[in-house]
Design goal:
It is built from 12 helices and 13 strands. It is an alpha/beta fold. Strand 4, helix 6 and strand 5 form a beta-alpha-beta unit. The structure holds pyridoxal-5'-phosphate.
């Protein structure tokens, strides 16, 4: 068998007829920038997530930067985030002159909410959890901490469109949230894309202006410094076409992870994250990634590779605090990051996408079992 970690060409084949239609329609109209499809997509995302405002932007890093800027994050402000996140979470803070302050993760690989309070100083402005691997943090507890200290919560929900905690969508808990539409995300376009979510009229207004050269969408007049980071209308049309199947997509991904968990849970050398069907009814995970922990990880990955199975380690194998080239721009104490340290010696991800078949999952599990025997 040959099971690459991801099959990018499958993304088009899966939705070919719908996507061809959507693209031809936009091309025939000549509707490229800020047209009806973008508005329709933003409204579809508002209805789906429950956010009052959704603003489409160029990618999931610009959405982080604009959301933070609109919320007043700036020079010298400290922003608390998990060390186990993509560089973009920290980049967004860094580009605004703010300082990422790194905290440890828990057994579900997300920010350990119980470690946040100890990281708060007089300079802390925001807590920015990453809704990692399609799962949402314990946001009620985080909100309590934020309220107690007068901080705002901003969500990097890049990996979590439709993920819920206590029946509320990722990206709608904080003052604002950011989601990526990168091709490999659960809802991905055919290029770059991202959205900002917020219930706050002023923040929404500022993001609407900033993404389009600082122009007010009502008057078309410049009212602030902006940049050009609009979500392409063509991408919005593709996203709308794919979004019709999103419920089905989330369910299939949960089924894949459940199938992996059913077979891998009996292997002592493997540690699994919470399965989507667990008794814990508080979380609804959309299963963006299946990140597991394994003893003798590197040899296991090599063995899987020899058997045609592609795997990857998130962020190229380094948590934020392990990026030595940037460590002077972030604040952390490695002694407080021991769970993350352990995780990055053991974690890697198995293929989880809409092209993976049940037979392939069973084959992968068989090989993992065989490796430890
Ligand atoms: C994908 C991702 C982003 C943003 O990625 P873009 O490629 O800029 O859309 C940000 N944070 C996390 C955690 C991500 O996984």
């Amino acid at each position: 068998m040959n099971i690459p970690y991801f099959r990018y060409n499958f993304l088009y084949n899966e939705f070919k007829a719908d996507v061809d239609n959507a693209i031809q329609n936009v091309l025939n109209k000549g509707a490229f920038i800020m047209q009806q499809e973008l508005k329709d997509f933003e409204h579809a995302m508002e209805n789906f997530t429950g956010a009052k405002h959704v603003i489409g932007v160029g990618n999931g890093t610009d959405s982080l930067i604009l959301m933070m800027k609109a919320c007043g994050i700036g020079k010298g402000d400290e922003v608390i985030m998990a060390s186990h996140t993509f560089i973009a979470t920290a980049t967004a803070a860094g580009w605004l002159g703010a300082i990422p302050v790194l905290v440890d993760c828990g057994d579900d690989h997300l920010m350990d909410v119980s470690k946040v309070e100890a990281a708060i100083t007089s300079k802390t402005k925001a807590i920015m959890p990453t809704q990692l691997n399609g799962r949402t943090c314990e946001m009620d507890k985080l909100q309590e901490i934020a309220d107690k200290h007068g901080l705002i919560i901003l969500e990097d929900a890049a990996q979590a469109l439709g993920s819920k905690y206590l029946n509320r969508c990722a990206g709608t808990w904080g003052k604002a949230g950011s989601i990526s539409l990168y091709p490999a995300k659960v809802l991905g376009c055919f290029g770059d894309g991202g959205i900002v979510l917020t219930d706050d009229d002023q923040i929404a207004h500022d993001v609407f202006c900033m993404r389009d050269h600082g122009r007010d969408p009502e008057t078309n007049q410049v009212c602030m410094w902006g940049i050009n980071t609009r979500l392409d209308n063509l991408q919005a049309a593709v996203l709308l076409a794919k979004f019709k199947y999103y419920e089905k997509t989330m369910l299939r991904r949960r089924e894949i992870v459940q199938r992996y968990c059913d077979q891998l849970s009996k292997i002592a050398e493997i540690t699994l994250p919470p399965a989507p069907n667990d008794k814990d009814t508080r979380h609804y995970d959309i299963c963006q990634n299946f990140e597991i922990e394994a003893e003798n990880r590197d040899a296991l990955r090599e063995y899987l590779k020899e058997n045609g199975i592609g795997t990857i380690i998130q962020w190229g194998g380094r948590a934020l605090h392990q990026i030595t080239e940037l460590k002077d721009s972030m604040r952390f104490d490695v002694n407080d990051l021991q769970r993350t340290e352990l995780l990055f010696k053991r974690c890697f991800m198995l293929p989880l996408n809409m092209s993976v078949t049940n037979d392939e999952i069973d084959y992968i599990c068989e090989k993992i079992e065989k490796f430890y025997k």
